[in-house]
Amino acid sequence: MTDNASGVLFDLLHSQLVAYIYSTIDNKNKCVSQLESLGFRIGVSLGEQLTKDLPRFRDELEVMKFICRDFWSSLYQKQVDNLRTNHQGVYVLQDNAFKLLTHISVGKQYLDCAPRYLALSCGLIRGVLSNLGVKSVVTSEVISMPSAKFQIMVQRT
After folding, report:
1. Distance between CA atoms of 35 and 23, rounded to whole angstroms?
2. Quick one: which of 63, 100, 61, 66 has its CA closest to 84?
3. Which terminus of the chain is more exposed, N or C, with fewer CB under 10 A?
């Protein structure tokens, strides 16, 4: 299957998954939690598939670069537009045209719906990182559509 066809299928599946979960669960927080949890499980599996032929990553920053380039490209057919870090375990990934928001990004009227379309992706990121040995908390933010920011806070023990 071509990258474009698989990308369209992923978009449709994601959209239907979000609609289904929000139509079957009354509590908004439970919906977000359910999507994030599902994303985590998928992310762990994706992490195994995408890294099986790669050498081990040397450090945390190399893992984040993998997320921004290879992982993001495999899901969204583009790399992250910007990666920032404070060098203390906090990373911010910015996608200026986040693929899962472009279909609802007509003005600000749908800004309040945006978090439901980011929850699965937060889980995906957290799952891949977990598979690579990086325990983290991933949150998302949308200030203007279709731009999305994902903040990764590495949990150090």
Report:
1. 13
2. 61
3. C
